[in-house]
Specification:
With about 110 residues, this protein is an all-beta fold. The chain is about 0% helix and about 45% strand. The chain is globular and about 40 Å long. The relative contact order is 0.25. Bound molecules: FE2/S2 (inorganic) cluster.
């Protein structure tokens, strides 16, 4: 396993989300929906579209391009047209830093 340092805790206030770069190449979206931090792949599993342009509602993230909603815990799509789940990463807060803990190797991204 390895940890990737992404953002400061104060960069993602309650009810917001922010895109970060992992390994300089992969986008990861950090979401603070209800005081719980979640981390998902930064682009949609349907087509290449950045998910920080989407909308947060209770426990879900809606992609702004074709309006599929994704469950923030499982990453599963709740509406078409998306049919692949978003990759969800384990979040670790160390001091004032938000990190994800992921298996060694390249970051899992579903597309
Ligand atoms: S690109 Fe996200 S639902 Fe189509």
């Amino acid at each position: 396993m390895r940890r990737i340092d992404l953002l400061g805790v104060d960069e993602v206030p309650l009810g917001t989300m922010k895109m970060a770069w992992a390994d300089g190449t992969d986008q990861v979206l950090i979401i603070n929906s209800n005081g719980d931090l979640a981390a998902v792949q930064g682009t949609c599993s349907h087509e290449y579209f950045e998910l920080d342009k989407g909308f947060l509602t209770a426990g879900t993230l809606t992609c702004a391009l074709h309006l599929s909603r994704f469950d923030l815990e499982s990453g599963e799509p709740l509406d078409p047209p998306a049919d692949l789940p978003l990759a969800v990463y384990d979040v670790v807060v160390e001091g004032d830093r938000i990190m994800i803990e992921v298996p060694d190797g390249s970051l899992e991204i579903n597309d």
